[in-house]
Each structure stands twice: as C-alpha cells, then as structure tokens.
Design brief:
Blueprint: H1 13-35, E1 39-40, E2 43-44, H2 48-55, H3 59-72
Antiparallel strand pairs: 1-2
Length: about 70
C-alpha cells in the first residue's frame, strides 16, 4: 500500500483556482465597501448629490426644492 504525495506550488491548477477565487472575493468586498451605507434608526440615508443623480436634477435644483418645502411647513 503506497502513500501518494502531491506537491502543490503556484503553478498547480488548484492553487491558481484558489488565488483567482480569493481575488474575486476581494474585488466584491471592495465594491460592497464603496456602496455601504450605515443605517440610522433603521433608515438608509443618501447624500444630496446621490439624490440629485437618482432624480436626474441638478444639485442646485434639489436645494431649491428643499428650501421651498421647508418654507411651506
């Protein structure tokens, strides 16, 4: 009964696949970090710049709308 030994190095398919998988995981974690927004009172908040992009209006227009809404209250 012989014991078979397998030597792994950086050129082995298993090691290459492992390294590639770790790179992909690292990229996904980096991407999630960029879009992560902490929650305050279970609500997610976005910046004025992000909101103006979503609404497809200029930041200045958003500021004017915000001012008009506050004046009417």
């Amino acid at each position: 009964m012989g014991i078979e030994q397998l030597v792994l190095n950086k050129d082995s398919n298993e090691v290459r696949r492992f390294i590639e998988t770790m790179r992909n995981i690292s990229k996904m974690l980096d991407a999630n970090f960029l879009i992560y927004r902490p929650l305050l009172d279970r609500n997610s908040y976005i910046t004025k710049q992000e909101l103006s992009k979503v609404l497809k209006i200029k930041k200045r227009t958003l500021i004017e709308y915000t001012f008009l809404y506050k004046v009417k209250e």
